[in-house]
Amino acid sequence: MEVLEENEEEERREEELMKALEISDELHDIETKLSVDQVCGPSDVSDFDWSSIDISQLPSSYKTNSPREKKLLRIADHYLQQYTHLCPDRKPLFLYPVNECGVKKFVSTTVRPTLLPYTELYHWDGCASFVCDYLTMEPLKSPLTPPSSLYSPTTILKYQRGNCFDFSVLLCSMLIGAGYDAYCVNGYATQDICSLDETLEVCPLLRKPQEVPKEITKKPNKYRVKSSLDLQSKFELQQEAKKKAETEATHKNKERGEEKVMEMEKPTRDPLYGLRVHAWVLVLSGKREVPEPFFINPFTGNSHSTMDEHFLGIESVWNHKNYWVNMQDCWNGCKDLIFDLGDTVRWEIMLSETDKPLQMLLDAEEENELFDRNMDDIEDEEEEEKDTSFAMPPTWVAPIQISPREFETRCSQGKKVIMYKKAKLEKWAPYLNKNGLVKRLTVYADLRFHIYKSMEPETERVMEFYNESRVDGLQKRAENATEIKEYFVGRDDFKYFQHTEFSKRGKKISVAGTRTDINSRPIVQMKECFHRNLEKPADEDVAERVFLITEEMIQLTYHLKDKYITASKKEFFKPTENYRKQSEIMTPEMCITYQAGSSVKDKLLHLYKLLQELTEEEKQLKQQVRQSEAEVLNILKIRENEEADVKLTVSIYDTKRNEKRKQQYEAMKNAMEDEFPVHEEQDLDYLAPFLIQIGYPEKMTKGQALRLRDDCLTDFKNRLIAKANIIQARFEKEVEELKKKNQQFQENQSQLSREEEAAFLTDYSETMFRIHILALRLNREKQTAPQKYLALEEKLRKDPRLAVYLSYD
């Protein structure tokens, strides 16, 4: 029986092995197809030959490995062997790809923490926005495996392009430099994330902020009022219910239509779901007041929750100090992962933590010192750390630098286009367009048909005005081919709205020397609406006045009187031309009136005068409509001229573009040079004070040259010592004052009020800040003083006036 069971187990293993081989073959076929067809990347990404880049000017650290880097590679190789042995089912780790010079470099040493001198880059969203705008995305050669190379951030910035790993390393370097606890992530994501496909995403400029419902808390009242009788009309309730049902039905139909559109827009099934390799950035909580961990997609610069379903798994994370491997199961994506890197059960660390922190690069001088450190210093450090745990070597990457012009230009060639769902966002560098355009958002009505609004007359547009600065109180004018709507505020006649409808015009006849508005749009109807004038009775105060031009009618509707549900109305029928010639008598058939609450009819004479007034008002209103049309044409003409002749204002601090300011500066500089040519030379001559002592000899002896050198060096040394003594004295003074204040606080602590205690703590904090700054300045002065002394000595040795005598010394 045992033999049979063993045979059955062997058969099962063989079957599972065959299935695994078949699956791997299928994945290999899909991978080759994708790499050939390049479906994993956008079609507009042009091919770039990375083998043609110039590496001759790169530093030596790019082309060789230091002893500590070689030791790190041996440790990483041993770590990879152990990992492969313990986890044979997982993919190989991304540890030491080659750089642009073909040299293997550990991924952590490729991260270069850098704080750039731009305010926008002090925050994570500014860094992410800059990286995604500045670089051009390149897809991975194989969507199933990490790249075989990882170039330095300096090379990526130079050529402004890279894959997701290049994006992540650059962004992580900037975030760590800005003080964030950031890490590069090697994992898996969905196809739209890996291929930078945002056509199904809503544009960030169109997203509506989420409304937070306010909780209304009712205070309990011990007194209760008896409920009043229900006096509401049942008919009105039925009408409201009917309207509500119609609204719900319309809303449901709209939702069904949207669901159908959503189904049509759903992406097709991805055969490589869960297998596509992607790199992004993880920011942990703790530093820079980050409340909880979150992801940053370097392609878009958007932040995502660690529960986001677009991120499907993590293999490893790293920063400039260490490398961690995820040992948690990613069957549910990243939703169940715990990002506590100190937990050795969930995260396997490569290098054991050391108590000695890695020195942060504070300024350019220290960066260059660390970067140009010679091999002897490195070997000495290795001998000191033989008995301790191995620490990560310093980065091999040169300092990351971005010029103000590059930071301002941002996008590659100054322009970037992003396609969103039913929208297109275009970005330009400042001053690239002559009209000053830097951003344009085009919103499409649907996925097929587009509506464009132009500056042509008689097209759809809305104009808004400052009603306080206009005599007619016009606030807004909405126009299209068939109507004009005008809204008014603060008029004496209480008019607040005017609506004019037009019909199609006939064939336009252009005659030389005639007016351009001879073929204006025929007016069909003019309607005016008025607010209530309390100085008039309601049945004499017009609420709405309509002039039906084609029907030769005038309709008047008055305001409602109190406790009335119907308004008074009058309808006038204008007489024809033949009738006007024959007689001017008003007949009852020419006017239909309704007087709310009264059966008394108006006299014909009164109605006749009212008709004459309305006829005159109609003529004036027609003239106003034509004036409005002319005003629109005039505004469009002005706007067209402004767009054709745009003059951008340049800041006086922008010396590269401000030609006027540049010319003034050069003229002032030339005038200063012409006025003070000798003094300038004397100011630049650092040996002038010492040459005066020996009388400016035409030829110096060797003794005079040696004395001149010694005096100059001695004076410079005394100045350095005096400066250090001043800083030391200030430091000791602040420390002594702090001790006195602390002693007084300890003695009188029980008698101090809260305000006095808060004032002491504020003063204490400021004093500690001054002490810290003085300590830094004193330490820096002690470090740089020998270098400055040696630099002056070398400068004296090369000075043409002393070089002849000092070369033999």
UniProtKB/TrEMBL annotation:
Domain of life (superkingdom): Eukaryota
Region (Disordered) residue spans: 240-265
Any one biological process term the GO annotation gives: cell differentiation
A family per Pfam: DRC7_C
KW Cytoplasm (keyword) present: yes
Domain Dynein regulatory complex subunit 7 C-terminal residue range list: 698-805
Keywords: Cell projection, Cilium, Coiled coil, Cytoplasm, Cytoskeleton, Differentiation, Flagellum, Spermatogenesis
Location of the CEP76/DRC7 peptidase-like domain: 277-350
Dynein regulatory complex subunit 7 MORN domain span: 447-651
Coiled-coil region: 361-388, 604-631, 721-758
Subcellular location as annotated: Cytoplasm, Cytoskeleton, Flagellum axoneme
One GO cellular component, as annotated: motile cilium
Similarity section: Belongs to the DRC7 family.
Protein name (record): Dynein regulatory complex subunit 7
Organism: Cairina moschata (Muscovy duck)
